[in-house]
Structure formats: structure tokens, C-alpha cells
Design a protein that fits this description.
Elements (H helix, E strand, L loop, with lengths): L2 E3 L12 H9 L3 E5 L1 H5 L1 H18 L4 E4 L11 H9 L5 H8 L1 H14 L7
Parallel strand pairs: 1-2, 2-3
Helix pairs in contact: 4-5
């Protein structure tokens, strides 16, 4: 598992356990925050921000990937806009930029390396 994608726009029936979060981060797993539901409905926005803030607090900003999950072109945002949105989740500016740029690239690179022969890329 490289990426854990949770529906943070709905009320979660559980709390994030710090031991599970730490174990996932130690294995190199990233957590995805999809912000498109917050753009669609006002009611989902509050829940998304609350859940994303709790997740970022537990991970201390490490291993976060912010994605759009856009259904149409009107829900797309620029990378700097997404990074600024990620700061509202409790990430620092550097962590927010990493969540948009380097963290997604690391997830893809790890997936490709796992599928390649003994981790060698050609």
C-alpha cells in the first residue's frame, strides 16, 4: 500500500489512532486529502476541514498528499492555490508545497520501483 485515500468529507465513524498513523508513516505510506467535495457543497466543507485538520495533526504534516478529485475543469486549482488551501489544514507552507509537489511524485516513484525488477528503474 502506497496511498491511503479516505473520504474526509463525511463524518468518520472512528478517530485516528496515533499508533496506526505512526506505523503507516514508518512504512512509507502517504495519506490523501481530496478537496473537491469541499468545493461542491457547503455542508461537506466543514466536515472535510475538521477531518483533514485531525489527520494533519496526527501525522504532524508528514506523508500528506493533497489532490483535487475533480469531476469537471471548474474544480481544478493551480498548485499554489492548493498549497495555500493545505495551510488551512494545519500544514506549514513548506509541508503544503511538499504535499502538492514532492509527496505525490514520491508515491508514484515508489509504486514504479516496487513493480520494477528488484527496485531497479530502466
Amino acid at each position: 500500500v502506497d496511498l491511503i485515500a479516505l473520504d474526509l468529507s463525511r463524518r468518520l465513524p472512528y478517530r485516528f489512532k496515533p499508533s496506526f498513523i505512526r506505523a503507516a508513516l514508518a512504512r512509507g505510506v502517504h495519506f490523501e486529502i481530496c478537496f473537491a467535495p469541499a468545493l461542491r457543497e457547503v455542508g461537506l466543507r466543514r466536515q472535510l476541514f475538521a477531518n483533514a485538520l485531525a489527520l494533519c495533526r496526527e501525522t504532524r504534516g508528514r506523508g500528506i498528499v493533497v489532490s483535487s478529485g475533480a469531476r469537471s475543469y471548474t474544480e481544478l486549482r493551480g498548485p499554489l492555490d492548493v498549497a495555500n488551501l493545505a495551510t488551512l489544514f494545519g500544514l506549514t507552507q513548506q509541508q503544503a508545497l511538499a504535499a502538492v509537489t514532492s509527496a505525490p511524485a514520491a508515491v508514484v516513484q515508489r509504486s514504479v520501483a516496487r513493480r520494477a525488477y528488484r527496485g531497479t528503474l530502466t
